[in-house]
């Protein structure tokens, strides 16, 4: 490490804890990726937790003239969130918000995800104006810094237009709150030279009629190329000019510490329709007509776009027909309408349908208000980017470019773009976009592994820039930001005069040029083909990963080690180094680090696949890596499977010893003793907590009778058979007793199979990378349940959700297997009299339940039992992951770090459907979590038969 960075670290540790100053080479490489096709490896990563820490970090870098880059979620596509110097990222502490004026405004810190802001506003019927496609992942800091827009945002509702005020930190560490008169007064005193320079720049710009006209023309379109020069002609107060220049500045002028938005209406009444026209000219004529109406969104898709999703499930049949017929002329419009009332919406539907009919659509799905139908239509548009990513050749990357044309020239622009694809052999490229704004995205795949391929891309970008900026006088970046990707072309679009304005702004605000150098302003004419990201083959499971980062918000290890995107990134580099052998010491170091960061602390829940545009489950790769065992390991696994009952009894003995010791020495001494033993064993001995379950012995088998009652096969999981409630539990009955109580109240005869001690669904073996033993145990259990259920005639209840998920994946479909919430909803609740309790409860929805689409049902059942149900935010998987809560408790702690603060003061109980998850939830919440069946048993009684009343 260079001496200046070591000196920087020494200074930073005076104000920041050392664990939030990252210098580990593997972590530096992992954080050196964003969603773009560039890669730079930072020298230092600083995780700031407070405003004071951010000010201190920025000021220190300024004083030492060390370049600094800010990152929010890292979903940027143009290379604006990477650095080869210092990368400053935010901890989860930057997620505060305040809804103001009955939802008319909202104050947001930069770390809150865009979709979360909209959830806060939903009760008021409002939302923030920007609606980027990545809104479920990208953060407010990035949305504002890139002036991101989206499908319905247009040019009227972006961050620039809906800004009410902000707090910022400039390069010298100065803090300014534009909504605080005292802060403004102080800033006018300390930075009068800057404000005077901005005022002078604005006056000269307004006096230059040709330049002013050019600026107005540029921002008639969507435009994020360069700085927001419209601030110079839209405002006179230099404070207003400065805060609007910050929008879209991509972290090159300062750090946005918070932002206040004027919100927009989020109409409750919506309708969507899909219309196909014979050619692009007709399609664009329809767009021109629609631009004169109040439609909310119009998405254009060319013929290649439609063909790319033709084989996806649920597509309208005519899309496949167009693809089979090889119709290269057709294009489609996906249209969304919003109404303040149902009547207004239906009036719009009639009006817009009449206008569309004039252009003679060849195929259509007429406007529908049915939510599933609308979601299916929008899945066509949302599936275009993934469709290209899923079929790209290994080693290539997916590039999505983002331009805007005057709407009156849209048809010829599309034709010319399509011709460039032909000229440069991008035959897989497709075009789609926000047609009302003339904003087109085009997606193609590109390899950067040879100089010839790099030159092809460079020549193509030269041709695109000429077409867009010169021939059509459009925007080279409509909503994705300039970044490194378009920095060499800013002057081409804006001309020398406009570019000099931008250079002057940069020099005025960032006098030492330390903030995100190379982004927006870049002297290199080849910056767009420098620092290109290699995407080498690593594993078929992850080779399709485009490193977009959509997976990261739901990853339980994201605050501890690596996210799925980062795991894929690091593993790709490991595999590359293995092939090239260019740096063996680095390879050895990275392998060692990856074992903990990548493999040991991965919960392998598969939630990442739910968010991934190309359905990658990084957990599958991790499980495959865990299969690389020694022969001894395989032998142990096989023995464990064959003697599962013995193993379970041994575990129960261990729980019993721990419980007795706890009773004798007390909680405090037990913690000290257990921690010491764990350290001495090299962390082989599991972590003990006061919420450790007590040992129980499983239920006795129960054979079917000749009764006419409804029957159910109950399979108590191995956790339920051996793990009872914790020592200080509110209800000391083991789960299987509670389950039997609920089932009998509902009038069920319960069948419990023989030989349960030896049974297991196979999940523990699968997660540890022993698929053969896992399959063997699953097959044994399947045969047992097949016989017990009378060859699939009776339902099977399993009391733990991961076991259900594993069984449904591996067992024959004729077996009807239910987890507790499902079974209660379908068979039990209607047979009980329930008195909802008033005391609040916490509810945890396990990752397996989420993947099965049960979140809504789980909430519904819990709310049927309790008046106040709290589902904590920012908690997806609990990170206990089988037994990792014992072996790697730090994963569980990191995943549940937001939980304790969200437990209401008067709440004493939490519920879920996985016994092991409940241990970790109890430890990290301060209250007892247990199975939902405890709550159902507590608030219900068997329905009393109706009695006949005689009337005289």
UniProtKB/TrEMBL annotation:
InterPro entries: 4Fe4S_Fe-S-bd, 4Fe4S_Fe_S_CS, Cys_rich_dom, FAD-bd_oxidored_4_C, FAD-bd_PCMH, FAD-bd_PCMH-like_sf, FAD-bd_PCMH_sub1, FAD-bd_PCMH_sub2. Residues 38-266 form the FAD-binding PCMH-type domain. Pfam families: CCG, FAD-oxidase_C, FAD_binding_4, Fer4_8. It is an enzyme of class 1 (oxidoreductase). Its cofactor is FAD. One of its GO terms (molecular function) is D-lactate dehydrogenase (NAD+) activity. The keyword Iron-sulfur applies. Its EC number is 1.1.2.4. Keywords: FAD, Flavoprotein, Iron, Iron-sulfur, Metal-binding, Oxidoreductase, Transit peptide. GO terms for biological process: lactate catabolic process. The keyword Oxidoreductase applies. Belongs to the FAD-binding oxidoreductase/transferase type 4 family. This is D-lactate dehydrogenase (cytochrome). It comes from Veronia pacifica.
């Amino acid at each position: 490490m260079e001496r200046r960075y070591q000196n920087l670290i020494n200074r930073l540790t005076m104000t920041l804890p050392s664990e939030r100053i990252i210098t580990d080479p593997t972590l530096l490489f992992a954080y050196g990726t964003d969603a773009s096709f560039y890669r730079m490896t930072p020298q230092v990563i600083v995780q700031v937790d407070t405003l004071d820490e951010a000010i201190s970090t920025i000021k220190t870098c300024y004083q030492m003239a060390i370049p600094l880059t800010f990152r929010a979620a890292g979903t940027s596509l143009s290379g604006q969130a990477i650095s080869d110097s210092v990368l400053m990222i935010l901890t989860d502490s930057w997620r505060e918000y305040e809804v103001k004026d009955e939802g008319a405004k909202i104050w947001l810190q930069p770390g809150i995800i865009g979709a979360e802001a909209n959830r806060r506003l939903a009760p008021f019927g409002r939302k923030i104006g920007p609606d980027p496609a990545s809104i479920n992942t990208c953060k407010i800091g990035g949305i504002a810094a890139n002036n991101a827009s989206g499908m319905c945002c247009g040019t009227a509702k972006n961050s620039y237009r809906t800004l009410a005020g902000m707090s910022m930190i400039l390069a010298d560490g100065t803090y300014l709150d534009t909504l605080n008169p005292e802060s403004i007064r102080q800033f006018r005193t300390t930075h009068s030279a800057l404000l005077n320079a901005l005022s002078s720049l604005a006056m000269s710009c307004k006096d230059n009629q040709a330049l002013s006209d050019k600026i107005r023309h540029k921002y008639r379109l969507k435009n994020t190329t360069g700085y927001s020069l419209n601030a110079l002609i839209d405002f006179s107060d230099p404070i207003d000019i400065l805060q609007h220049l910050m929008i879209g500045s991509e972290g090159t002028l300062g750090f946005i510490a918070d932002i206040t938005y004027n919100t927009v209406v989020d109409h409750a009444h919506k309708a969507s329709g899909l219309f196909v026209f014979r050619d692009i000219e007709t399609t664009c004529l329809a767009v021109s007509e629609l631009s004169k109406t109040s439609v909310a969104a119009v998405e254009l898709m060319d013929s290649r776009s439609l063909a790319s999703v033709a084989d996806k499930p649920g597509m309208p049949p005519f899309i496949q027909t167009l693809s089979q017929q090889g119709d290269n002329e057709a294009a489609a419009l996906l249209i969304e309408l919003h109404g303040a009332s149902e009547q207004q919406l239906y009036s719009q539907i009639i009006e817009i349908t009449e206008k569309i009919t004039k252009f003679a659509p060849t195929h259509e799905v007429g406007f529908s208000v049915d939510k599933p139908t609308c979601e299916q239509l929008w899945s066509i548009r949302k599936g275009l980017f993934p469709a290209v990513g899923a079929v790209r050749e290994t080693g290539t990357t997916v590039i999505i470019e983002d331009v805007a044309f005057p709407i009156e020239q849209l048809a010829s622009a599309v034709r010319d773009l399509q011709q460039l694809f032909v000229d440069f052999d991008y035959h897989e490229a497709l075009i789609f976009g926000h047609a009302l704004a003339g904003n087109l995205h085009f997606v193609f795949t590109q390899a950067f592994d040879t100089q010839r391929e790099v030159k092809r891309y460079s020549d193509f970008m030269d041709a695109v820039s000429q077409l867009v900026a010169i021939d059509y006088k459009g925007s080279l970046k409509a909503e994705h930001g300039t970044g490194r990707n378009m920095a060499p072309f800013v002057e081409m679009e804006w001309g020398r005069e406009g570019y000099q304005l931008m250079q002057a702004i940069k020099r005025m605000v960032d006098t030492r040029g330390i903030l995100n150098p190379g982004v927006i302003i870049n002297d290199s004419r080849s910056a767009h083909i420098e620092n290109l990201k290699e995407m080498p083959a690593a594993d078929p499971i992850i080779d399709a990963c485009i490193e977009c980062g959509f997976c990261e918000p739901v990853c339980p290890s994201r605050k501890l080690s690596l996210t799925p995107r980062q795991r894929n990134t690091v593993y790709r580099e490991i595999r590359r180094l293995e092939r090239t052998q260019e740096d063996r010491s680095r390879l050895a170091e990275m392998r060692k680090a990856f074992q903990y960061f990548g493999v040991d602390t991965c919960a392998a829940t598969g939630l990442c696949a739910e968010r991934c545009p190309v359905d990658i489950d990084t957990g599958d790769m991790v499980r495959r890596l865990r299969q690389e065992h020694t022969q001894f390991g395989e032998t142990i696994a096989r023995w464990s499977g064959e003697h599962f009952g013995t193993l379970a009894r041994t575990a129960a003995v261990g729980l019993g010893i721990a419980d007795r010791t706890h009773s004798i020495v007390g909680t405090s001494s037990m913690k000290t003793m257990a921690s010491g033993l764990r350290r001495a064993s090299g962390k082989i001995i599991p972590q003990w907590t006061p919420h450790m379950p007590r040992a129980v012995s499983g239920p006795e088998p129960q054979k079917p009778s000749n009764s006419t009652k409804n029957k159910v096969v109950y399979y108590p999981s191995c956790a339920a058979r051996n793990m009872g409630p914790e020592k200080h539990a509110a209800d000391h009955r083991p789960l299987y007793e509670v389950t039997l109580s609920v089932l009998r109240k509902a009038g069920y005869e319960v069948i419990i199979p023989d030989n349960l001690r030896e049974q297991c669904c196979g999940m523990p073996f699968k997660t540890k990378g022993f698929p053969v033993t896992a399959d063997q145990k699953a097959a044994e259990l399947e045969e047992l349940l097949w016989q017990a259920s009378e060859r699939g005639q009776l339902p099977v209840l399993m009391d733990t959700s991961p076991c259900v998920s594993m069984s449904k994946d591996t067992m024959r479909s004729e077996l009807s297997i239910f987890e507790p919430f499902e079974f209660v909803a379908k068979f039990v609740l209607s047979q009980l009299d329930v008195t909802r309790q008033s005391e609040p409860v916490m509810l945890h929805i396990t990752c397996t339940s989420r993947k099965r689409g049960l979140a809504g049902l789980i909430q519904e059942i819990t709310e049927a039992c309790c008046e106040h149900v709290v589902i904590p935010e920012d908690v997806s998987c609990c990170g206990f992951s089988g037994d990792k809560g014992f072996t790697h408790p730090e994963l569980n702690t990191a995943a549940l770090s937001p939980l304790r603060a969200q437990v209401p003061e008067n709440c004493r109980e939490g519920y879920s459907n996985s016994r092991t998850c409940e241990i970790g939830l109890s430890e990290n919440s301060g209250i007892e979590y247990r199975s939902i069946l405890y709550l159902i048993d507590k608030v219900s009684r068997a329905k009393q038969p109706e009695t006949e009343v005689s009337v005289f």
